[in-house]
Amino acid sequence: MPDPSAVKAALQAQEIETPSWGYANSGTRFKVFAQAGVPRDPFEKLADAAQVHAATGVAPLVSLHIPWDRVDDYGALAAHAANLGVRIGMINSNTFQDDDFKLGSVAHPDAAVRRKAVAHLMECVDIMDATGSDSLKLWFADGTNYPGQDDIVARQDRLFEALSEVYARLGEHQRMVLEYKLFEPAFYSTDVPDWGTSYAHCLKLGPKAKVVVDTGHHAPGTNIEFIVAFLLREGKLGAFDFNSRFYADDDLMVGAADPFQLFRILHEVAKNGGFDKAHGVAFMLDQCHNIEAKIPAMIRSVMNVQEATAKVLLVDLPALREAQAAGDVLGAHAVLMDAYDTDVRPLLADLREEMGLDRDPLAAYRASGYAEKIVADRVGGTQAGWGA
Amino acid sequence: MPDPSAVKAALQAQEIETPSWGYANSGTRFKVFAQAGVPRDPFEKLADAAQVHAATGVAPLVSLHIPWDRVDDYGALAAHAANLGVRIGMINSNTFQDDDFKLGSVAHPDAAVRRKAVAHLMECVDIMDATGSDSLKLWFADGTNYPGQDDIVARQDRLFEALSEVYARLGEHQRMVLEYKLFEPAFYSTDVPDWGTSYAHCLKLGPKAKVVVDTGHHAPGTNIEFIVAFLLREGKLGAFDFNSRFYADDDLMVGAADPFQLFRILHEVAKNGGFDKAHGVAFMLDQCHNIEAKIPAMIRSVMNVQEATAKVLLVDLPALREAQAAGDVLGAHAVLMDAYDTDVRPLLADLREEMGLDRDPLAAYRASGYAEKIVADRVGGTQAGWGA
Amino acid sequence: MPDPSAVKAALQAQEIETPSWGYANSGTRFKVFAQAGVPRDPFEKLADAAQVHAATGVAPLVSLHIPWDRVDDYGALAAHAANLGVRIGMINSNTFQDDDFKLGSVAHPDAAVRRKAVAHLMECVDIMDATGSDSLKLWFADGTNYPGQDDIVARQDRLFEALSEVYARLGEHQRMVLEYKLFEPAFYSTDVPDWGTSYAHCLKLGPKAKVVVDTGHHAPGTNIEFIVAFLLREGKLGAFDFNSRFYADDDLMVGAADPFQLFRILHEVAKNGGFDKAHGVAFMLDQCHNIEAKIPAMIRSVMNVQEATAKVLLVDLPALREAQAAGDVLGAHAVLMDAYDTDVRPLLADLREEMGLDRDPLAAYRASGYAEKIVADRVGGTQAGWGA
Amino acid sequence: MPDPSAVKAALQAQEIETPSWGYANSGTRFKVFAQAGVPRDPFEKLADAAQVHAATGVAPLVSLHIPWDRVDDYGALAAHAANLGVRIGMINSNTFQDDDFKLGSVAHPDAAVRRKAVAHLMECVDIMDATGSDSLKLWFADGTNYPGQDDIVARQDRLFEALSEVYARLGEHQRMVLEYKLFEPAFYSTDVPDWGTSYAHCLKLGPKAKVVVDTGHHAPGTNIEFIVAFLLREGKLGAFDFNSRFYADDDLMVGAADPFQLFRILHEVAKNGGFDKAHGVAFMLDQCHNIEAKIPAMIRSVMNVQEATAKVLLVDLPALREAQAAGDVLGAHAVLMDAYDTDVRPLLADLREEMGLDRDPLAAYRASGYAEKIVADRVGGTQAGWGA
User: Which among B40, B289, B303, C97 is placed 20 to 30 Å from B188, CA to CA?
Assistant: First the structure.
């Protein structure tokens, strides 16, 4: 069995990234239920994210989303983050909310719209320069709703041209990560619908381009851990967007729908070196929970990732490999399940204590009074949401 | 082969219902792309719906949605409809956009919220009284996002209690139709997720309660025509919400994603008497197309339903039954496909001509100048959308 | 928190049923990989099943499958079971392997074939009489492969007529349970494709007819625990066929693909009284694992059901209900997850010790030498499989 | 609109490949229903395939499957084909029916098993040499049933090593095409589960390796025409396995489940040059219909491919591109649908007449007396099936 202190060391070194928009209002097409106390600007979002890190000790990074997190002075924003004990993580582009992007952005049939989209991506790289972020995270809503609406291959050509331009703009220590998604908001064809498409483009672009795996962006029945393992084997896994789904891209709390799947995914990460910082995999949470309290839900998600990580670190890899080599189906499966069935909550509570944290992050957050404080303080102004 | 004049007579008698909200802005959670010229109130929605009927001759009914279509004087609204040559169809309730409904409406754990929801449903029946509508169309967004969030059985009890109250309020010639939906906006459990749940409730409620089949509300692989056939056999099919989907509840134009499925569904309708007015099946389009022009898309959908109907009316039923009885798999399938493979557009153009309409409804609409007129006229005010 | 001794008492009272065919060879359409030592007749199948009960103490029932388990003297078979310490459970009919059943059995267009199918079902009831089994378990492969092949409604009529005949034949303490399945082996329409269809028929048949939920027989995204809860609320849940699936009806070991789903299902069972013997729910395993050793895989599945049961018994129901009533989404979810995250293996090992069993059933089975014995003894004859 | 004579010329030049195993018995894991008159050896399979070509004029190629089609003298088999007016198409390997392949073939943990698998593939290349076939078609059933059973990455390494060995063996004018499949017979992980995996391996192997798209091998909701378009853009589409599915890999007649999807796929083929012989795309039917007559079902499938091809050739591409460039969603969609809605059966009947064939291939086959002849003649011997 793995050495407990090594397990703890690995857990302590874990860095989970939370999304600034996860602290803002979000919802479904039917309704966005606003919550009292949600942030009104990027500074307040960072403050909330800092609470998650304060409670868990493993969430020091915060993803930004442009234009939602546009500010006048990005240096000031980065300094604000540092003061709060967190850092700016990836810069997420948004080419789906401008009226011009109704029929797409980088793959739009009109060259003028594509130029506008590329200009936005260039602005995101500028923000990387200004904030010290090393990653441009690209998700394109581009696609079509009806057969015949546009030419699938022509859209790939335009997409690649735009990606190439932006790739050329990246600095020496910067990179781009390209997310794929089966569907939504496009309902017939999506221009980057699966890992194969993202991988093929990244391969052509070069070593600074890698694939993002959002756990909610697959067809039913897709074996996500296979994709993760494959991309790690190819050195092309750039980042995770963790969240949960029962049906489509439900964006629920991480580990809430299928904790065993999260475990299997992280088992592939652990087994294939994905937790090594050298591999450069970003572990981001991309959830847009809309009926439960924002900060506690994020803490819960961070804890769920931690628990799954602890379990995969407890897998007895030598025993697993021996059983696998012997073709012992039940034995190999049992080795994996032994780790999954372990209750790692006491181990994590001990770890937190060693890190000077409360054994129970949610209790600590509740006790902090922060929730009441933001409700009282954040009066007036416009609450942040997907549209702002 | 069926008699062409009988086919035309049946097609001429067809009444398709369009949704008032299909003329307003709609979109995805990512973005609602507003369109110039969309209606600003229910009167303008009816005017647009009347254009669809004027062009096609088979869309005389318009569904209302409350509170989106709330007006001071429903009698005036009904009179307005009559002046335009259309009629008010079903009254659709909405218990998903009030902040109180965050955790549900009729199935909410809090009795006060449930009372509010029931009061809204009662208002809808009042509107039926005022407009002469005979159908209350119920879709509940109720459900939960997380395992454990609420008790599945308790929610059923509350749901049934509310339905019973409203059922008791129905007048002699009024009825309720209950829609089911697999998921969205609830992501873990939905309180009326499938036809079985709707059917079981309707059976207990009584003969005035029937099931609504929305073609976009099923799990992948569900055989929708089986459900339609089964409900017709039981006398429990109340209405259709037609639309298209490739993935989830995409709400695209009817017949755009899988025209053969639409044909198979309508074949069951035809074969089992569902086109008889006595059966009381409402044929509504419930599409929320968001990137294409509103009125032409609705005309196209109506035409697609018409074409599929024409094809199923051409099925050689005696030949089909003979092949089925003989266990002739290929032969029976071939009879069905012969009808499907037929190009019915000339037949429908002839029919329109006989009805005094243009042979090409879309061309007629384009030539009418209506599209330009509403863009010019409807300036100022607030455009209607899902939220208004 | 629940009282540990009450939890143990409930676990000790649990009765899980294993399928005779789970000890025989099975496979996919591509290949059946035969295993040395598998039974050659029903007596040997019972002997293997008795090993599973001996190791776990909670698997005293064995389902039979006719004609695979046809014997000359069913009294002798029942006595054999009793000698081995197990009992005959449900009698499973088979109307899918006779050449006459190519286009269906009870729903076949030809009345002669339907009569043959009904005669088989009557034989199954005779076997219930002879063995003391109280349940006829019905699964029909009936359906069609092509649109138009047969009439969906006519097939329902035939199906119901056959069910009614068999229902009338049931003795006072006998019942029938009707299984549904989305697809396979029929690929276009299936005559009992979902719980709604089974429920509607059972309702008409009467109180002796109940629904079987096979956990592998649903469309992707179906919330199975909702169905279970709904059927328990209606008093119509007759039995489970437990197994695991990632894609279709994979028939893997129970709990191997989604242990959290198994927990959620059993949570609904526990909360709604489904573990009470009075409810009459049969907890059968229906797995056809084909690459791993038969008996150990069955033991593992029984243990997985036990572990999931132990977890649901540990759910703090009063706390859960309080959080649910308060609309505390995160709190209610957390109560459920606390139970799921608990490692119940020590509790179950203690229970086994108290029951006079080995703490580790799989180790006990391995130590017994039974596996080697059957390989050595069962030489010659024809191995049992799906076809024999 | 396209020139009718050009359309006819293209249709006449079409070469569809049928699978030898499509003439033999096949079925589901529940039952293989044997048919009178099915072939007993590869020579008889070719004779049946020749009937399909005789009736349709566009099915001159026959895929072989080794070992099912193993013969002593492959030269004699090829000569027999030539005499019948057909040619040997692709050689399909089989590494899933030997007992040694229970846990995989080229990805098996045991090197000895892998060597055996590679030896089989080499034999297939030998058969290519002997028959003049230019394509090795590879589908691997390799995968695992349980999490932990084997190492996903290690299996990729072994797979690639085997592929590389075989690739090196290919002659100058030979190539390999690698098929992917979501699941079945492996139920947890499949070693080549999606197009991305096949593409990544083919890219590394070199220009002689291309991807096979089997239309039944995808997760629900997958946009297959996107994959086809993408692979054509990359020059990596090697072959199609056409068939139909409603649920999983149902292997029904081509075009029977979703004729519009078949049309969309072939539209991408047409638009992207895939019908040019230079592109080297093989258009194979891989159906295993099990309840309908073998030869007529194959004729029907060939006709369905022909009809879909005719429709895509009728697409007004200049009009389509103009509407796409203008962002005219409804207009572009309408151009595509105009072609789909056309009844091309008269055009194809005319073409057949011009080719000296009967206007109705199925009627011609029925009139030929072949069906009765093979039932009468093929008495004794062992019928061919998946296992022989």
Answer: B289
